Description:
Layout: H1 3-15, H2 20-34, E1 40-47, E2 52-60, H3 75-83, H4 85-91, E3 96-97, H5 101-107, E4 113-114, H6 118-127, E5 131-139, E6 142-149, H7 156-192, H8 195-231, H9 238-266, E7 274-277, H10 278-289, E8 296-301, E9 308-311, H11 313-331, E10 336-345, E11 348-355, H12 383-393, E12 397-404, E13 410-419
Parallel strand pairs: 8-10
Antiparallel strand pairs: 1-2, 1-6, 2-3, 4-5, 5-6, 7-9, 10-11, 11-13, 12-13
The structure holds adenosine-5'-diphosphate and magnesium ion (MG).
Amino acid sequence: MNEWRLIGNIQRLLFNCETIEQMGGVILNVLFSVIPECRKAVLFLYDNGSESLKPFFGLEASESVNIEEYNALPEEILRKQMRAPFNSHALKYPSVGRASPFFEILLNDSCSMECRGDTVAEICSYFGFKNLGEFSIKSREKVLGSVIVDANCRTAGVRESMEVLKPLFSIYMDDLMKASYIEDMESRLETGYPSNMRRESLYRLGRASSWIAHEIKNAVIGVIGLFRRLEKYIKKDNKSENYIRVIEKELERIYEFVVDINQYAKGFKVNESVLFSVETIIEESMNAVGIPNSFVTVVTNIHPNARYIQGDPSQMKQVLINILKNSVEAIGKRKGKIWISTARNGDVVEIEIKDNAGGIEGEPVHNIFKPFYSTKSHGTGLGLAIVKQIILAHSGTVEAHNTTFGNGEKGLRFKIKLPLKTESGGVDGENNGGR
Ligand SMILES: Nc1ncnc2c1ncn2[C@@H]1O[C@H](COP(=O)(O)OP(=O)(O)O)[C@@H](O)[C@H]1O
Ligand SMILES: [Mg+2]
């Protein structure tokens, strides 16, 4: 796995942590995956009440798992690791108060101590370490925790890895702590605040995020332009070309992300409700996604009674683009198929989009509509949340289900139901206008 993808994967693992236990587990398992020479590691967490660092989780390399295989650390693996003898032993170590020399060691990021000197020797002997390396987890100089590792941190590779991991762990640990604070606020908002104040807070939050996204988008457009000009002056060799590619890709990703955030935060209102042809928006969406014809086949089946829909055509096109793009991404480099069909059921037009890309495993399917839910290292997790917003704005519903085909292949099936609005003249015939 290349360095960049590995970092993306670690970020996703950290982002998906909902509890401090999960985060502790991810941090230690990541350490062993990134620093193979590390034999044991113990995470200490800072306790504000007693102003001391307490052992929280200890893990040995032999008990660890390869994190490259996961999007989130499975709960049963974490429980098993917590039951291991080394963890019980580590947890018995007394809290380390400010007055203790160990406290200093836990905060000094030196990661190059050999097991000499009284305090270090005592720590090494208790935890069974040959070497003692350490890095602290801080948020703006506020200590959140510290990790001690049994690895020779004089090795440049080990030190470099720790330098990369330290800020990642700090940012996500800080986020998780704030998240519980936000959840607290949310529950206070839900229970303790009058509903008009709650609405106002949410409105302000939405406004703030869309304004931030707008500002970032403008800045990124400028940076992309300047970077393209600068690129000509950069001496080209393998390493710099690789860096240029990564910078460009990341800038584009930020751009896409803020566009999605902006749309999501603003929400959707059906501005223009007209009758439009489903076939036209399917074709336009396929062009926008850029279906790779050599390995993705799209089969459409438009029922004559469900040829036209009423609504906002540009928003409905966005729905199709987001769903199709996911199918194409799920198919990846294999050969695959996407089916799009429409049907009429009483006063409802149904649109079904399905693929044979494998579907969703080990996760409730409805999670995919949650904002920021993504299993991709470069996903925004907003595509389907936006789909849901648009469909709801059209007074419709959208569901996703796993599906199995006759030949045993699996895939994902989306069903969108939209009410048939007949006030502008019905949608049955071809004489009704439409785009
Ligand atoms: N057709 C599909 N097949 C398998 N998984 C899918 C499909 N569509 C969506 N998903 C899953 O749903 C997640 C959320 O999708 P989305 O909201 O578009 O965000 P993103 O594409 O940025 O990850 C994806 O990361 C993927 O795990
Ligand atoms: Mg998507």
